[in-house]
Amino acid sequence: MPYKVPFVDPRIHYQKLKIDIDEAIGSCLRQGDLIYRQQLRQFEENFAAFVGTKYAVGLNSGYHALHFSLQAADIGPGDEVITVAHTFVATVSAIVNVGAMPVLVDVAEDHNMDPDSFEAAVTSRTKAVIPVSLNGRVCKMDRIMAIANRHNLVVIEDSAQAIGAKFNGQKAGSFGLTGCFSFYPFKLLGGFGDGGAITTNDPEIARIVGRLRYNGEDRTTGEYHYHGQTALLDNVQAAVLDAKLRHLPDWIAHRRKIARLYSEALAGIDGISLPPYDDLGHFDAFQNYVIRTPYRDKLRQHLKKDGVETLVSWPKPMWEHRALGLGRPHLPETEAICREVLSLPMSAETTPEHVEITVESITDFFSNAPSLVPDDETVVTFSRAD
Ligand SMILES: Cc1ncc(COP(=O)(O)O)c(C=O)c1O
Q: DSSP states of 114-149 as a string?
């Protein structure tokens, strides 16, 4: 049976935008504009302007944005790169795949890198830091930039979940050497397949990443400068993303409204903690609305029974996937988060009625609170629609 409240609904999303999307795709196909044409350049220009950087370079995934950023910054074997374990695995895989050593630090209560843990992990081999702005909230970039500058470290922002989010008025992806974005379909700005981009103010970094994505070739001279990869953002995807970019501010405003409705309605319930909202210089874009509760698995089952689809990102600390070879770091906040987080339905298509149904189910669950037993620590599911 379909969910009464789906986590996301790509069919309705398409129906709402059908005229714009069909025209964007149709014009590429009619003109035979498939690889590296004006639609890609136009999107890059508009995306850079949106983020507030001089350049954007379109890639085929957020993973490649991270990988190429590290390569362009000359990071490789012998170098340590500090990041968090509470992130999508791609953040850490990019570090491993360029031959560097990931050093995992804990997050703070806002689910983002704890600046003190970051500074404590710096060694003479540390070359870079990748702060991950999760769930549509920018990391404490004032502190992270200050620490990075003090230790002369490259800052590569993982902004895959934070398009349009701001800290002290500045957008995610405009603080570091590069910002790394994902246009995976269920991101704040999603394509109809994989896609990504870096943003930067550094012309040399933009040039290097522009070649790396095209097998190392300089398109104007035909010279191969490196062993690169095939990792260009497809022209059709760029055309779709450009059409969608115009709607992004409205979608963020909508998500913020949905978040406010959740927060107001759930505020009085014991046993849940709510995500932060616009405190201390933050403007949150709500890629995800993530609550915490020690009854997470039971609550999730209850919501499912009531037709509400939820997500858990991520149920198991990354290092516990033993094949990844990440050792056994001691990161208590990350471990607690993995046991307790639950993402409620949140997208441009989520309606106030969806919120009502969800809140009613949660309220009903907690009305039995005195007899509730917290979940044990068994991990049950894995999914990825964030
Ligand atoms: C925090 C984070 N980093 C990196 C990525 C990787 O992006 P992509 O899936 O486009 O490779 C994602 C997306 O899933 C993400 O959420």
A: -HHHHHHT--TTEEEEE-B-GGG----HHHHHHHHH
Ligand 1: atom nearest CA of 134 is: 1
**Cα separation, 250 vs 258, whole angstroms:** 12
**Closest Cα partner for 86 from 264, 317, 268?**
317
Query: With contact defined as beta carbons under 8 Å apart, do 283 and 165 qualify?
Result: yes
pLDDT tens digit sequence for 233-290: 999 999 999 999 999 999 999 999 999 999 999 998 999 999 999 999 999 999 999 9
> 58 CA distance to ligand 1 centroid (A)?
15
Provide the whole-model pTM.
0.96
Distance 69 CA to ligand 1 centre (A): 14
Tell me how far apart the alpha carbons of residues 276 and 282 are, in angstroms, rounded to a whole number: 9
- What backbone torsions phi and psi does residue 213 show, to the nearest 5 degrees? -75, -10
| Distance from the alpha carbon of residue 160 to the mean position of ligand 1, in angstroms | 5
Q: pLDDT tens across 123-176, in order?
A: 999 999 999 999 999 999 999 999 999 999 999 999 999 999 999 999 999 999
